[in-house]
Every structure is written in C-alpha cells, then in structure tokens.
C-alpha cells in the first residue's frame, strides 16, 4: 500500500466498493479474488458469500484459478464428499488443504485422488501407502511423481504385477528398486521402461538387449554408453535407429550413415539435432523427403549460408521453415516476405527482428495470419495497431493484446471486445491503466471480473493481509480448466 494520503483514501473506497459488489455478485469468484488480501475482520462477509450455498462451494472447489487460501478454508469446512472430491482433483489445492482432507476412514475415491495429487505431502503419501489395501489407491500412489522413493520401495515389496510398470515409470523410483523390479519382471514392457528410467542401474546399460522394445528404450537412454548408442544407430530396426539418432549422447561419427538411411524418419531425426555439424547438414539439404528438408531449415544448427536452397524449395512448408530459422539472412527474409504463399509470409511476420521495409510491406497484406504477425510485432506503428485492434478476425485482435508495446489508447478499443478472452488479457496488459480496469468491474464475464477484482485487491491490500497474499497463484491464461499433466510412458 502506498504512503500517499490521497492514494490511501482511494484504496479504501475501492476496497469497500469491491467488497460490497463481491458479496452480491452472482458468482462466488469475485469474493474469492478479494479473500487472500482481506484483513481478518473482513473475511467473514466474504466467506458467507463464498461458502453459504453448496452450489458455490462446488464451483470454488473445482476452480484452479482461485487462491490456495480459499481452497484451504474450504477444505477445513468438512463439507461432505462432493466438495472434497473436487478439491482433491483441483491442481491448485495446497499441501495443507490436502493434508486436512486426508483421514484413514476417507472414501476409496478420495484416497485415490489424494494419493495421485502432485501437492500431497510426502508424510500423507506414506500414511496412504501403509493403510491402502485396494489396488486402485496403490496405482494412484505409483503415478505420483512426488512420492518418496522409500514409499515406492515399500509398494514394490508387495510384488503386485499390475504395479510393476507404474513403478518403472515413476521418476522417483530409486535405483535399487529398479534393480529388484528387473529381477522380478517377466514383462518386456517393464524392463524396457526400466532401461529408459533416469535412475536405471549402470549394470543394465552394458549390453544390447535382444528384445526390440528394450532396444528402442535403450536407444533413448541418455546415460547409455556412447559405444552402445553407436551400435544402436546401425540397428536393423528403423525405430531403434531413429531413437539413437535423436539421442544427444550418440557420437556424431555414428550419424553419417543415418544421413543416408532408407527410412526418412531416421534422416529427419538427424536433421533436427541441435548439435548437427555443417558437413552433415550439407548432406541433408537436398534430401528427397520434404519433412527432412523442413526439419533442417528450421534447425538453428543449420548454417545460414545453406538456407538459400530451402528458401527456394518447391515445398511451401520448407520455405516457411527457412523463414523461421533464427539466423535467416535479411535478404532471404525479404524474398520470403514476397512469397506467393501467405503462410510463408506469415512466418516472416512473426519474427521480431525485421527490416522496417519488410514489416511495412507485410502490413499491407489482407491475410489474417500475416496481419496477426504484424499486430504482435514490437515495431508496428500505433496507428496501424489501432486499425488492427478493430479487425474482424479475433486472432488479429488477440495479437494486438499480446504485443507488449501496444499503447493504452489502443488497448482501450478492446475493453468491450466481444471475446471475454480478449478482455481478460487486456486487464493484465502492463500498459493498461487502472482507470480502464476499474471501468471493467461490471464486465459480464465472471473470469474478467475475477481478474479485475484480483488486480485491485492485490494493489490495495491492507498491510495485515499482504503477507497472506504473497503466495497467491496468478491466472496466467484464460482457461476454466488447465491442461492435465501426464506422465510419459513407453
């Protein structure tokens, strides 16, 4: 909070109005935006709005964008199964809240969700492992990358076949546990996953296995001996050769033959290597497969002098890849900006370092992909951005907001954009003024209002509430449901 008396008075007036609006808002999220920053005496009214109706508690329990403090308070209410299950699924639920949800007599489904959650405290995971009797809970535990290695070792000692592959996949599984799994496993998929594991025992990386699946995984193992990788780079199976060609540990000398491999995917893997020597790049620049030429043209390791041929390639995607090369010469960019295919021109437009004459030429295009690149370019003139901010295509308008140098007067044109996504993004733009944000406190979209309320709550937070707000997770993308994190398996 600033020390200016006038600013303090404005902050208090803003806070009072926001609190009144939050308590009467149709959705509980406005109150949730204020809650982490409210003084203790102010939280009772906000809690009444957030938690008074079961429907609102269910909404908050599922929302990944609300502050952990709200979810923790909700977890402490002991509100029954549906709310608890949603909290246990919510990726934003804190470790403390998950600890409050855990109890030995919890339902099997709740135990499974807590066992799988990335933020569950290790002590709780250990208790779940000790108490769990059903396979599904143990399965969820084995899928949690934050579990302690000793807990996974305990689970491994149960010798449950259906859990072996999950244990072999889990990044936390220790070397001795993997060695024990290798001795017990009859499934080649389990052994293959052990060979791929970052903690794979060195003794298992000494010889080339007979199983095709195991060789494919060993070829991806970055700790495998270089001599072994060189042998796998000449394997009879194309997938093994491709994996070895992608492995940064494979000696470059072993890749010469792969540049002329009969399988195009192997040559593609070589062309995409970030340590590709110029000599090997020269072998691939005229490859018969356009996908190989495209990978090479996009590769920063490709020498700029070799880009002349990709820039005139018959395949438009290869020319586009050349336009995206980080060191593409300006004379080639000028040529590609005149390409007959607008998709190639768009690749030029999305580059930050462009000669002004090229940018001005692209700005005269009518293609929306090209104009989107122009709209996000930091050197685009404000007058041009103002015209693009009212373009019919939402992608172009969105690019204007993504431009960090878009001036405030242009951003104000997007304050009433038909897409709630754009209005929410404008609220977070560094050049958007607080007076503009304040006028959006009645926005019809709940998440736009959430961002507005959160901004002013954070700005005007009382000193007593400031410490509680330090760890608030900010919403960086407008998405009701964030992408799920998956663990990669063979």
UniProtKB/TrEMBL annotation:
SUPFAM superfamilies: ARM repeat
Matching InterPro entries: ARM-like, ARM-type_fold, LRR_variant
Disordered: annotated segments: 467-490
Superkingdom per UniProt: Bacteria
Pfam families tied to this protein: LRV (PF01816)
Protein name in UniProt: Leucine rich repeat variant
Organism of this sequence: Aromatoleum toluvorans
């Amino acid at each position: 909070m600033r020390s200016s008396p006038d600013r303090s008075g404005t902050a208090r007036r803003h806070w009072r109005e926001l609190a009144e609006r939050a308590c009467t808002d149709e959705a509980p999220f406005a109150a949730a935006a204020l809650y982490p920053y409210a003084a203790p005496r102010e939280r009772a009214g906000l809690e009444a709005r957030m938690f008074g109706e079961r429907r609102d508690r269910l909404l908050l329990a599922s929302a990944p964008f609300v502050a952990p403090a709200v979810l923790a308070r909700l977890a402490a209410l002991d509100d029954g199964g549906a709310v608890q299950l949603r909290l246990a699924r919510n990726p934003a639920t804190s470790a403390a809240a998950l600890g409050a949800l855990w109890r030995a007599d919890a339902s099997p489904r709740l135990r499974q969700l807590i066992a799988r959650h990335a933020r569950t405290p290790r002590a709780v995971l250990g208790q779940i492992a000790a108490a769990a009797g059903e396979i599904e809970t143990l399965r969820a535990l084995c899928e949690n990358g934050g579990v302690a290695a000793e807990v996974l070792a305990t689970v491994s000692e149960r010798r449950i076949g259906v859990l072996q592959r999950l244990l072999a996949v889990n990044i936390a599984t220790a070397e001795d546990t993997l060695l024990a799994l290798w001795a017990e496993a009859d499934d080649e998929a389990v052994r293959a996953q052990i060979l791929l594991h970052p903690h794979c025992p060195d003794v298992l990386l000494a010889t080339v296995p007979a199983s095709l699946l195991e060789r494919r995984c060993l070829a991806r193992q970055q700790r495998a001996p270089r001599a072994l990788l060189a042998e796998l780079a000449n394997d009879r199976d194309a997938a093994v050769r491709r994996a070895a060609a992608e492995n940064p540990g494979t000696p470059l000398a072993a890749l010469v033959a792969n540049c002329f491999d009969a399988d195009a995917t192997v040559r593609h893997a070589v062309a995409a290597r970030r340590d590709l020597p110029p000599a090997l790049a020269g072998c691939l620049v005229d490859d018969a497969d356009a996908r190989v030429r495209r990978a090479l043209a996009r590769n920063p390791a490709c020498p700029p002098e070799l880009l002349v041929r990709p820039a005139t390639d018959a395949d438009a995607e290869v020319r586009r890849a050349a336009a995206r090369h980080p060191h593409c010469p300006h004379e080639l960019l000028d040529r590609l900006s005149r390409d007959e295919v607008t998709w190639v021109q768009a690749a030029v437009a999305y580059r930050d370092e462009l000669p002004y004459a090229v940018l001005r030429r692209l700005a005269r295009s009518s293609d929306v992909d090209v104009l989107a690149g122009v709209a996000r370019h930091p050197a685009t003139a404000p007058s041009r951005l103002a015209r693009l901010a009212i373009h019919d295509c939402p992608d172009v308008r969105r690019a204007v907001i993504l431009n960090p140098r878009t001036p405030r007067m242009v951003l104000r044109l997007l304050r009433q954009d038909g897409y709630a996504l754009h209005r929410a993004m404008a609220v977070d733009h560094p050049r958007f003024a607080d007076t503009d944000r304040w006028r959006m406190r009645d926005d019809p979209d709940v998440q736009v209002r959430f961002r507005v309320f959160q901004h002013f709550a954070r700005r005007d937070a009382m000193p007593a509430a400031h410490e509680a707000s330090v760890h608030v997770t900010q919403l960086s993308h407008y998405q009701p449901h964030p992408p799920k994190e998956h663990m990669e398996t063979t």
